[in-house]
Design goal:
The complex is a heterodimer of chains A (about 750) and B (about 325).
Chain A (H helix, E strand, L loop, with lengths): L3 E8 L6 E8 L24 H5 L15 E7 L5 E7 L1 H4 L4 E6 L6 E2 L5 E7 L2 H7 L4 E6 L14 E3 L2 E3 L8 H9 L2 E9 L2 E2 L7 E6 L5 E6 L3 H11 L7 E4 L14 H14 L3 E4 L2 H7 L2 E2 L1 E10 L5 E13 L18 E10 L13 H19 L3 H8 L3 H14 L1 H4 L15 E12 L8 E6 L5 E4 L9 H13 L6 E4 L16 H28 L6 E4 L2 E4 L2 E4 H5 L7 E6 L11 E12 L5 E10 L7 H20 L30 E6 L22 H13 L5 E2 L3 H14 L1
Parallel strand pairs in A: 3-16, 11-32, 14-15, 19-20, 23-24, 30-31
Antiparallel strand pairs in A: 1-2, 3-7, 4-6, 4-8, 5-7, 9-10, 11-18, 12-17, 13-14, 13-16, 18-19, 21-29, 22-23, 22-28, 25-26, 26-27, 29-30
Helix pairs in contact in A: 8-9, 8-16, 12-13, 15-16
Chain B lengths: L4 E3 L4 H7 L4 E4 L3 H9 L6 E4 L4 H4 L2 E3 L5 E4 L4 H6 L9 H9 L3 H4 L4 H6 L50 H6 L3 E6 L2 E6 L22 E7 L7 E7 L10 E10 L2 E10 L6 E2 L13 H13 L9 H18 L2
Parallel strand pairs in B: 1-3, 2-3
Antiparallel strand pairs in B: 4-5, 5-8, 6-7, 6-8, 9-10, 10-11, 11-12
Helix pairs in contact in B: 9-10
The chains are: A alpha+beta (about 750), B alpha+beta (about 325).
């Protein structure tokens, strides 16, 4: 049993601070809390790799170019469903430049979507490999395919956008009773289309199988160690013979956890030809073969009591996760329903399209869009403003404070349209303004099993190393800031290395766990290294070890103050080296983080075009390690959410199952000219979960924006829009229906 | 991909002489590169027009008020040109200034914008065979996905003409100058587009060895007012869902001349004959709204692009009001 030290901490935030006693595992660094005064942490540090990125010097997998490297492509099924009847690759190998070709599917096996891998070809040049695709002789027996989950035999019947048909029979008695007892009830249907991850760097890797039997890989991945494990197992190699690099990653958003069929194919090709093989997906392949956020149909019936408290919540959803038929679940914030009888049911409907993958808060933007839409309707039934209704129902103490702060800074009272569907004073008749808001909930505090090395050299260089990847979130800078804080020096001084599996083990970057998993480990490593530095300095100066400390860029030894470099010269030729561990989490303040977002829109009622004028987020992520990085994460998520709310949708040709807008011209993503005035307010909370107390910011800010924008559009035009993306045709159709009903 | 030859002719006549089947003229290459990468074009040779900047570039204004726009003038040059400052020419500047992105506008040429292939997603994918690319027997958009497709002038193909520059040039009465061999000819810009834009018909009427060398604007175009308006889903880098270019002459409170051409709604730039009904009337929002309703009553939308009828009316009214200075 691990021994523990009882430690008193002050946790929470200014409006809800409390003292708690936590068991800190012996050997852990003393935890930071509300009373800790920090220097580098919480500042605005420029990313340590900013210059490398903006000058193009940062090397991504896509940029890797090795001597003798071959280029590989994948032959793919043009059919959405059926079987591969025969496969003849004999003509491919004879083509100019082609070095190797391997089958990826055996005849007789199913093809499951347009793009299902059939074979892989490596050639000296990319164009030769692409040419060789035409020589792949594949025959198929095709079958009729359901290419949209709405056409699945088990899909609910939709009439004018509303699900009709019975509610699930099981487990609904309590909810039914609560609905029957409710003062007001409402029912509605929400629909979300498929969003693709649209990573700027497409998926893929460079694999080099060497003569000594080792495999070296440069991958665009969110999980260096996962790719190592996947390739080792696929090629039947021990893991230590595989080394994976991911120094820079051009976006993953949940779609880049594995080597994928393509990565394994590149490694197999490399083993055949004994030279490096590069296989990066094209933009079309990235849209169509590398995952997506599944579509969803969600219906909700709910009830409130006479005071406006939600007492019944029946949530029934269908997901469209593609050919696997798994992973299309939706989620929503539970904190409104602590006084409600609830039921939650879900079915996935498979279709002959690319499989869904995790995407930034998997299932949450869909679920919260529906939930916050229904909450808006319930507020209306209660005769309450949407903000007041949420304050009444939301059980989260952090978000209670965030709602109030956000509403004030956003100008909720002024921006809310008191007469939805009518122009505000001074606006022309066709411009309709409105405001909306929505909550966000996330609950990951990181896990154990990671290590970080901190090394201090005689010349004053400080290194922090971990083998996991920085997927663009700024994790390297987070490591620099934490190490610098502990050593009392500037973050710019720290040399951070990430993305090499020869370095200590780190997590996959999913579920916002990288920061909470690594931050306490980074700090622990720096804390141990500092202790040893102080000991060596004390020995060299012949002072008491306890009298040496690092502070303000100096090392204080009794009555002497040495510059940090000066002190490092005393440590001798052997660097100080410490390996930090990730101890288990403490009980802490609470296990989830809270956020909320506000949006103001203007709708042109003649053209149906929605423009977002203002967005504001208030977001808790525990301790804010760096304000600039944190705001950057929140703003990026708001833009992605706005893009999902208004533009993004995979458009598939129903007859063939082929995506029609698998490019960046027709797959529409919000661009610079679409962006509103945006504000991200970080809401620091001492969560007391570990020695740092920071949560991640991948997911939490990526949940609320679509719901907030949809609610703002509803407030502007006076009709709820319950189908994402909110494109002009849907707005015009809704306005036309409203005119007919008047 | 098949290797191709890149030819750099030293004169327009040489460029025309270098043309032929399986040879393609290249200006900035904005559209052509996309087609080559998607492998829907497979030329033996590219005849590069960029070396001919001296002959094909420049915006010039003659003493008689006519204006010559070289085919290699970029969209950004047009948007920024002082020679096009007159209110009557504003539509052209606005249209070119709204296109694509700053990067594309600074590279894309007027000639390329007029002669680019359409953007139908079936036509643009090598995986589909449709009647317009000559490999299929029908329009796939007709029974498929067509939210961005045509609502006017459909023969048997739902493509829309993608050029931003064409509608304003139509309303300005522009002529195009074309060279074949040593021979030059001028023709109204309307003649650049097929009478019946069927699936089997190309987007423009130029022969394989015709080089578009310039666009000429008559002096009269500078008089009066003009405007271009488009609606698109995004503000950054998006195609218009509907566009309208308008040129109006107004004297003594009455409309003396009127010309309207719609964009992004038909396989050709779509001139509105009804514009003549405005002549003699006093410009007003009500008048323009009536006209717009009349024009779009004749649209034949699909279920997916019905929105264009409503959007198009709004855009047309906006353009008319702006051109009339209201």
């Amino acid at each position: 049993m691990t021994s523990r030290d009882e430690h008193e901490m002050r946790v929470g935030f200014a409006g809800d601070a409390k003292k708690i006693t936590v068991d800190v595992p012996t050997g852990d660094a003393p935890p930071w809390d509300l009373d800790t005064r920090l220097t580098s942490v919480g500042g605005r540090t420029r990313r340590i790799d900013a210059v490398a990125k903006v000058t193009g010097r940062a090397r991504y997998a896509y940029d890797v170019d090795l001597p003798g490297m071959l280029h590989a492509v994948v032959a793919r099924s043009p059919h959405a469903a059926g079987r591969l009847a025969s496969l003849d690759l004999s003509a491919v190998a004879a083509l100019p430049g082609v070095a190797a070709v391997i089958p990826l599917k055996e005849p007789g096996n199913r093809v499951r979507f347009v793009g299902d891998p059939i074979a892989a070809i490596a050639a000296q040049r990319l164009d030769q490999a692409l040419d060789a695709l035409a020589a792949v002789r594949a025959e198929y027996t095709t079958e009729a395919a359901v290419t949209d989950f709405r056409d699945h035999p088990d899909a609910p019947e939709l009439v004018r956008g509303e699900v009709v048909g019975p509610w699930p029979g099981r487990g609904g008695d309590e909810v039914a009773a609560a609905l029957a007892a409710a003062a007001h009830t409402a029912e509605g249907t929400w629909i979300c289309e498929v969003q693709t991850h649209s990573c700027l760097e497409s998926h893929g890797l460079v694999a080099w199988f060497k003569d000594d039997g080792t495999l070296e890989v440069w991958a665009s991945t969110q999980a260096t160690f996962g790719v190592r494990g996947g390739l080792a197992s696929a090629l039947e190699l021990p893991e230590e013979k595989v080394r994976v690099h991911a120094e820079f990653v051009g976006g993953g958003f949940g779609s880049k956890f594995g080597a994928d069929a393509e990565g394994v194919a590149a490694a197999r090709l490399s083993r055949l030809v004994k030279c490096p093989v590069k296989l990066m997906l094209s933009r079309f392949e990235d849209h169509t073969c590398a995952g997506n956020r599944p579509s969803a149909i969600i219906r909700i019936r709910a009830g409130i009591d006479a005071r406006g408290i939600i007492t019944a919540w029946d949530y029934d959803a269908w997901g469209g996760p593609g050919y696997t038929g798994r992973g299309g679940g939706t989620r929503h914030n539970p904190t409104y329903f602590t006084r409600a009888k609830t039921r939650n049911s879900h079915r996935d409907l498979d279709s002959a399209t690319d499989a869904g993958r995790a995407m930034r808060a998997p299932g949450w933007p869909q679920g919260n869009f529906a939930m916050e839409g229904m909450v808006e309707r319930l507020a209306e039934l209660a005769g309450m403003d949407g903000l007041a209704f949420r304050l009444l129902n939301d059980a989260d103490p952090i978000r209670q404070a965030e709602w109030r702060l956000g509403a004030e800074r956003f100008g909720w009272e002024q921006r809310r349209n008191p007469k939805p569907g009518t122009p505000r004073d001074g606006d022309p008749a066709h411009l309709l303004r409105g405001a909306g808001l929505a909550s966000a909930f996330w609950g990951q505090m990181g896990g154990t099993g990671n290590q970080v090395t901190c090394r201090i050299h005689q010349d004053g260089t400080v290194e922090a190393r971990n083998g996991a990847q920085d997927i663009g979130t700024g994790m390297k800078t987070v490591m620099a800031v934490l190490t610098a804080e502990e050593l009392g020096i500037a973050p710019e001084r720290i040399r951070v290395t990430m993305g090499d599996t020869n370095d200590p083990v780190g997590p996959a970057s999913g579920g916002s766990t990288t920061t909470p998993s690594l931050a306490p480990t980074v700090r622990h490593a720096a804390w141990l290294a500092k202790a040893e530095l102080c000991e060596r300095v004390a020995a060299a100066l012949r002072v008491e070890p306890g009298s040496v400390r690092c502070e303000g860029g100096r090392v204080i030894a009794g009555d002497r103050a040495l510059g940090f470099d000066e002190a490092c010269r005393l440590i001798g030729p052997t660097p100080v080296e410490a390996t930090g561990r990730r101890f288990r989490n403490y009980e802490g303040y609470q296990d989830s983080v809270a956020g909320c977002q506000f949006a103001a829109v203007v709708v042109d009622a003649r053209t149906g075009v929605v423009r977002v004028e203002k967005m504001l987020a208030v977001q808790d992520c525990g301790l804010v390690i760096d304000t600039l990085l944190a705001e950057n994460q929140v703003l990026g998520a708001m833009i992605q959410g706005m893009s999902y709310a208004l533009h993004e949708q995979r458009i598939v040709d129903r007859a063939t199952g082929r995506m029609l807008n698998g490019d960046f011209l027709n797959y529409k993503i919000s661009g610079p000219a679409d962006l509103p005035d945006m504000e991200a307010i970080m809401f620091p909370v001492a969560n007391g979960k570990n020695n740092v107390g920071a949560a991640g910011l991948g997911e939490p800010p990526a949940i609320a924006a679509p719901a907030a924008i949809a609610n703002a559009v509803g407030n502007a035009i006076g009709i709820p829009l319950r189908h994402l993306p909110i494109t002009l045709d849907k707005v015009l159709a809704a306005l036309a229906e409203a005119r007919r009903n008047r | 991909m098949n290797p191709f030859e890149l030819r750099n002719p030293d004169s327009v006549a040489a460029a025309s002489g270098a043309a032929g089947p399986a040879r393609v003229f290249k200006a900035a290459g904005i559209d052509l590169l996309d087609r080559l990468k998607e492998r829907i074009d497979d030329p033996d040779a590219l005849v590069n027009l960029l070396p001919l900047g001296a002959e094909l570039g420049g915006i010039g204004r003659s003493d008689d008020g006519t204006i010559r726009l070289g085919a290699l003038v970029t969209l950004q040059q047009i948007a920024d040109s002082d020679a096009l400052a007159a209110p009557g020419l504003r539509a052209l500047r606005e249209a070119c200034g709204e296109a694509a992105t700053p990067q594309v506008r600074s590279r894309a040429t007027l000639g390329g914008n007029l002669l680019q292939r359409n953007r139908c997603w079936y036509f643009r994918s090598a995986a589909f065979q449709c009647a317009h690319d000559g490999k299929g027997d029908r329009c796939l958009a007709w029974h498929g996905e067509n939210r961005y497709h045509a609502i006017f002038g459909v023969v048997d193909c739902l493509r829309v003409h993608p050029s931003n520059a064409a509608p304003p040039l139509m309303v300005l009465g522009a002529e195009v100058e074309v060279q074949r061999g040593e021979a030059r000819r001028r023709q109204p810009i309307a003649a650049l587009f097929p009478d019946s834009p069927a699936a089997a018909t190309a987007e423009h009427t130029l022969g394989a060895d015709d080089v578009l060398i310039a666009v000429h604007l008559p002096a009269a175009a500078a008089r009066g007012g003009s405007a271009y308006r488009e609606s698109r889903e995004k503000q950054s880098f998006d195609w218009a869902t509907t566009a309208a270019a308008v040129h109006l002459g107004v004297e003594g409170g009455r409309i003396t001349s009127a010309s309207i051409c719609l964009g992004a709604v038909a396989p050709n730039p779509w001139p509105v004959d009804d514009a003549q009904s405005l002549v003699g009337e006093a410009p007003s929002r009500e008048l323009f709204e009536q006209l717009a309703r009349r024009v779009f009553r004749r649209a034949t939308p699909t279920e997916q692009n019905r929105y264009k009828v409503e959007v198009g009316q709004a855009i047309l009214v906006d353009a008319l009001l702006a051109a009339a200075g209201l």
